[in-house]
Amino acid sequence: MISETLIPKIGVITDVRIDTPDIKTFRVVTTDGKKAFDHRPGQCAMLSVPGVGEAMFSITSSPTNEEYMEFSIKKCGCVTDWLHQAEVGQQITIRGPYGNPFPVDDVFAGKNLLFIAGGVGLAPLRSVINYCRHYRDRYGEIDIVYGSRSKDDLLDYKEIIDEWANDAGVKVHLTIDNPQEGWDGHVGFVPNYVKELGFDTNKIAVLCGPPIMIKFTLEGLCALGFDKTKVYTTLELRMKCGVGKCGRCNVGSKYVCKDGPVFRCDELDELPDEY
């Protein structure tokens, strides 16, 4: 019997939101106007454009949204270039979900949470953050540290300011790399900002962003006293076929499609430096 995750469904783009100069968020439903399939925070879907190609993307919307899925996609290749030209009503194919999710219902439950993201790295974490906001009473305090090159490059800025920052028990810490006219917030790189904020270690930390950001942020967290068993990240950018058959996602003995993309940072220590 063929797994349903391998069978593409026809999806329809019902909304396109321009988030930054090179990131758009696409809202997708099936041809009968429903959500294509259920998923968990941190899982991915394969979007296909017949005649162009297919690519794996994090599902940006929360599983608690039962009406549609959203994907925040950076323009950086053939498939993404095509998608950035797509308009409302365009049909694509979608299949999934793929990958292991973040352990939101067991490990994260009852804990204080620290989300740290850089650039488009907020896209995979948005699903987790909004899931935890929806079930707010299941979690402790939530801190969100997010940075990008400039204010214009901050993904989901309106949602962050209008919704996240106004939630009880949620603190948002934004930063941009360089000074900018009209910006009165923090200026500096995410790893340095995390060390400046000096978080206590009674939290579960979740990282996503450019590899260099993750590297130095993890070093900063360790310097603050965080144990790597309490720090999670996602390697979704390495996912390829989604089922561990093509072999292109392997890092050492691990297949990101099957064993990840979510990993604890102590698990990453067991992998070759190539990750």
Keywords:
275 residues; alpha/beta; Rossmann fold; 7-stranded mixed sheet; 7 helices; 31% strand; globular
Question: Would you give an account of this structure?
Answer:
With 275 residues, the chain is an alpha/beta fold. It folds into 2 domains: 4-98, Beta Barrel (Elongation Factor Tu (Ef-tu), domain 3), CATH 2.40.30.10; 112-234, Nucleotide-binding domain of ferredoxin-NADP reductase (FNR) module (Rossmann fold, 3-Layer(aba) Sandwich), CATH 3.40.50. The protein has 7 helices and 15 strands. It has helices at residues 78-85, 122-134, 157-162, 190-197, 211-224, 256-259, 265-268, and strands at 9-20, 23-30, 44-49, 53-58, 69-74, 91-98, 112-118, 142-148, 170-176, 186-187, 203-208, 231-234, 250-251, 254-255, 262-264. The strands form 3 sheets. A 7-stranded mixed β-sheet has the order 10-9-8-7-11-12-15, with helices on both faces. The protein has a 6-stranded antiparallel β-sheet with strand order 4-3-6-1-2-5, covered by helices on one side. It has a two-stranded antiparallel ribbon with strand order 13-14.
